UniProtKB/TrEMBL annotation:
PROSITE patterns to which the protein is assigned, alphabetical: PDZ (PS50106)
UniProt source species: Amedibacillus dolichus
Stretches the record annotates as Disordered: 1-25
UniProt xrefs under PANTHER family: PEPTIDASE S12, PROTEASE DO-LIKE 8, CHLOROPLASTIC
Name this polypeptide is given: Trypsin-like peptidase domain-containing protein
Sequence similarity: Belongs to the peptidase S1C family.
InterPro entries on file: Chloro_Bact_Ser_Proteases (IPR051201), PDZ (IPR001478), PDZ_sf (IPR036034), Peptidase_S1_PA (IPR009003), Peptidase_S1_PA_chymotrypsin (IPR043504), Peptidase_S1C (IPR001940)
Entry keywords, A to Z: Hydrolase, Membrane, Protease, Transmembrane, Transmembrane helix
The keyword Protein biosynthesis is assigned to this record: no
Keyword Zinc: no
Domain PDZ, first and last residues per copy: 285-377
Transmembrane segments: 37-60
Length: 386
């Protein structure tokens, strides 16, 4: 939102014209009695109070309070992170964030051996009747999913849909009267904006709040083989925060927390999926249980990362290779073949399957993508209709 530019008004008066010189008079000395002085002070106080009340009324008329819905306005703070602002956001948003507990059952070496593993994460309420967004990796392979609200109520959740590529999933619980988050507009964010994370760190500290700023926008990261464009924040996030909410100073949901950088000497680097990127995927998951609008090449890719592997596979160099093609798919129709090494996509060199997927994600169904491959020592260009 553009800031209001308030221009000060300057009053100009014509310079007084010189008048004929008059005889000088002695300066008049004004003597104030105590009664006159008291009257003057009283008048000033009345005038001051009147101006203050009038100004407050004018501000109230020009900035009326309203119900917040899909609020994409931007608060401009003139100071540092105000604790009262953070407290206000928490009061508004904390009930919209839930704890998630999962259990996964795996079979052992014989049919009588089973192993149960548990996991934990966070989620954000989308609707009053119980739709919840979280991360794909939070509920991946889970046999049971339990959701706990801030009030302490527990529900068994069903999986509506999940998408590994975007790391998003939607759950549904049988509930009513929940407090949904207000979805914001992450495209209006700027580096330095206030960021507040609410989640379930370590899987046992539900409702925890941390604050920081937006450290970077459009940060391209590869996580578990998936290349994503994420928001970076220095608000502290830990295992268990995944799937929780990242909120702005208005209390709008601007991101779904999904990762943190860890390692020696690494602090204050967390990432979140921008909500403006997530909304279309969430809608598709609710409607179809999967993402159906994403274009595909119809190929299986394999990364050859060293010369030894290349020698074992009988190929000439490292890179990303097509190992399988779906009959009648986009790549098959364009003339690509198994064994082709993909050199570049849309003119940009690629060295891994994640690079290819990242380039593909920039396109929509019905568009064409340009792919250059190496085949039998020769490079060939293909236009692939998606």
């Amino acid at each position: 939102m553009n800031e209001d530019n308030r221009l000060s008004e300057n009053e100009f008066q014509e310079a007084p014209q010189p008048s004929p010189e008059k005889p000088k008079r002695a300066k008049r000395v004004v003597q104030l009695t105590w009664g006159k002085l008291t009257a003057i002070i009283a008048c000033c106080l009345v005038l001051s109070i009147g101006c203050g009340i009038g100004g407050a009324y004018l501000i109230a008329r020009t900035n009326p309070s309203s119900v917040i819905y899909q609020d994409t306005s931007k608060i401009v703070s003139t100071g540092s992170q105000d604790s009262s602002t953070i407290k206000s956001v928490v009061e508004q948003c904390a009930n919209s964030v839930v704890e998630i507990q999962t259990e996964s059952v795996t079979n052992g070496s014989n049919p009588f051996q089973q192993y149960v593993s548990s996991g934990a994460g966070s989620g954000v309420i989308l609707t009053q009747d119980g739709y919840i967004v979280t991360n794909h990796h939070v509920i991946e392979d889970a046999n049971t999913i339990t959701v706990r609200t801030r009030s302490g109520d527990e529900y068994t959740a069903s999986l509506v849909g999940s998408d590994e590529q975007s790391d998003l999933a939607v759950l549904k619980i049988d509930a009513a009267g929940l407090t949904p988050a207000v979805l914001g507009d992450s495209t209006t964010l700027e580096v330095g904006d206030l960021a507040i994370a609410i989640g379930n760190p370590l899987g046992e500290l539900g409702g925890s709040v941390t604050s920081g700023i937006i450290s970077a926008l459009d940060r391209e990261m590869t996580i578990d083989g998936q290349t994503m464009t994420l928001l970076q924040t220095d608000a502290a996030v830990n295992p268990g925060n995944s799937g929780g909410g990242l909120f702005n100073a208005n209390g709008d949901l601007i991101g779904i927390v999904n990762a943190k950088s860890s390692g020696e000497n690494v602090e204050g680097i967390g990432f979140a999926i921008p909500i403006s990127t997530a909304t279309d995927i969430i809608d598709e998951l609710i409607a179809n249980g999967e993402v159906t609008s994403r274009p595909t090449l119809g190929v299986s890719l394999y990364n050859v990362e060293d010369e030894m592997t290349a020698s074992q596979l009988g190929v000439d160099s490292t890179g990303v290779y097509i190992v399988q093609i779906v009959d009648g798919g986009a790549a098959d129709n364009a003339g690509l073949r198994s064994g082709d090494r993909i050199v570049s996509v849309d003119g940009s060199e690629v060295s891994s399957a994640s690079d290819v997927r990242a380039a593909l994600n920039k396109h929509k169904i019905g568009e064409s993508i340009s792919i250059t491959v190496e085949r039998n020592g020769q490079t060939q260009d293909f236009d692939v209709a998606l």
